[in-house]
């Protein structure tokens, strides 16, 4: 199995559990398969996604932004130090309230580069060109499963718009990161990008 297939398997797993559980984005926990139902496993999921994206795009000229760069050290420490919980049945893994406050990494302000992720549409044209969206590190976030922490969501505006065949297709977003909080019924983001370019994810 190649790295792309492994990545798609990892990011798709939360979706199947969430569909069965009929979860909503208003809740503050993630519905994950049994072996991912812990905060540490969630962090590993995001880390694995970042590593695989990085490995497949290692030759790019633009700086590639890692999703975990957007999470401050205290949030990472909270996830790492949470005790493992025995999960039975389909119960969710609760995330610490502190993590859901959306703390940011000040050094990421005005960082220019590109970051891979998945699209959660917020504003589209009549012909379904996407003008505004949340970028998230794994497929299904905010749609089939509750949202990740706000510092793992980026609010992106791209006035010229783009189309995508399916929401499970990853994309590249190029631009400059801003620390800017956005809240709506779908989720809350701690960062924003006014995109210079949006393109399908491809291995470089």
From TrEMBL:
It comes from the Bacteria. It holds the Pfam family DUF3299. This is Lipoprotein. It comes from Marinobacter nitratireducens. The lineage of its organism: Bacteria, Pseudomonadati, Pseudomonadota, Gammaproteobacteria, Pseudomonadales.
């Amino acid at each position: 199995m190649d790295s792309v297939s492994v990545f798609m398997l990892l990011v798709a797993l939360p979706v199947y559990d969430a569909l069965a559980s009929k979860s909503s984005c208003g809740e503050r926990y993630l519905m994950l398969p049994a072996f991912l139902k812990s905060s540490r496993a969630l962090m590993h999921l995001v880390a694995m996604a970042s590593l695989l994206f990085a490995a497949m795009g290692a030759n790019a000229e633009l700086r590639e932004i890692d999703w975990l760069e957007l999470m401050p050290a205290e949030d990472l420490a909270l996830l790492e130090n949470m005790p493992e919980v025995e999960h039975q049945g389909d119960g969710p893994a609760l995330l610490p309230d502190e993590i859901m406050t959306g703390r940011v990494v000040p050094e990421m302000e005005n960082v220019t580069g590109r970051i891979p992720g998945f699209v959660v549409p917020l504003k589209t044209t009549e012909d379904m060109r996407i003008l505004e969206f949340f970028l998230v590190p794994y497929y299904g976030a905010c749609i089939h499963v509750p949202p990740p922490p706000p510092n793992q969501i980026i609010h992106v505006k791209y006035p010229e718009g783009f189309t995508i065949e399916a929401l499970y297709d990853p994309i590249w977003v190029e631009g400059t990161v801003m620390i800017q909080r956005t809240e709506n019924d779908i989720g809350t983001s701690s960062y924003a990008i006014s995109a210079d370019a949006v393109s399908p994810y491809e291995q470089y």
